[in-house]
Amino acid sequence: WSSYLQARSAPGRRLVVINIDETNVKLVPQERVGHVSKRAYRLFVRGRPMGRNASLSAQRSTITHVAAMCDRADIQTLLPQVVLVGANQLGEERFDRIRMTAPACVWIWRYPKAWVSNVVMVRYIKLLGHCLRKYRQSYRFILYVDVLKAHICPAVLRAASAANIWICVAPPRMTWVLQPCDTH
């Protein structure tokens, strides 16, 4: 497959495979059986509750990390790592403060919901194209995604075409084998 894509690429341009995927990160991690800290154990022995003082809403609250990785270390440092937060999770002032202190490759976006949508993906593809613009003449970029509808909607495909990025879709139930962000 790689040799086919290399043949289809312009002469002298090398292939760079980029993989993106998203993962939810719980804001209040749940305790698991067998994972009890010393402090929690002491509370348990004294008959006190070990649970956190977090509402059910907070326990269910998540942010989303849109992770990007590739097979070239020099380009990996340019790939945007996006953290999506819900508007109700983070106030405007705190959001601005966190965004200003984040590393250069980390982007924090605030949306009504911390989910990947068509709008988020189009914005991400445009950002990815912008970050890779100086390498367009020497590299052909192939973006591996899974079949989430937000990853392959027409608007995303148009944005990828405009950014000169080829999309390669990993078939359903095969991402654990084919998509590096899902294999580990």
Rounded to the nearest angstrom, the distance between the terminal CA atoms is 23 Å
The helical percent reads: 25-40%
The unreliable regions are none
Question: What's the rounded overall pLDDT mean?
Answer: 82
Q: Sheet with the most strands?
A: 6 strands, mixed
Q: How many H/I helices?
A: 10
Strand order of the largest sheet: 4-3-2-1-5-6
Which series of helices and strands comes N to C?
HEHHEHEHEHEHHEHH
Q: Give the overall silhouette.
A: elongated
The proportion of residues in beta strands is 25-35%
Rg, please? 20 Å
Structural class: alpha/beta
How many β-strand stretches? 6
Structure notes:
38% of the residues lie in helices and 25% in strands. By secondary structure, it is α/β, with parallel strands linked by helices. Strands 4-3-2-1-5-6 form a 6-stranded mixed beta sheet. Helix 5 (92-101) links the parallel strand 3 and strand 4 (106-111). Helix 6 (118-131) packs parallel to helix 8. The longest helix has 14 residues, at 118-131. The chain is elongated and about 70 Å long. The mean pLDDT is 82.
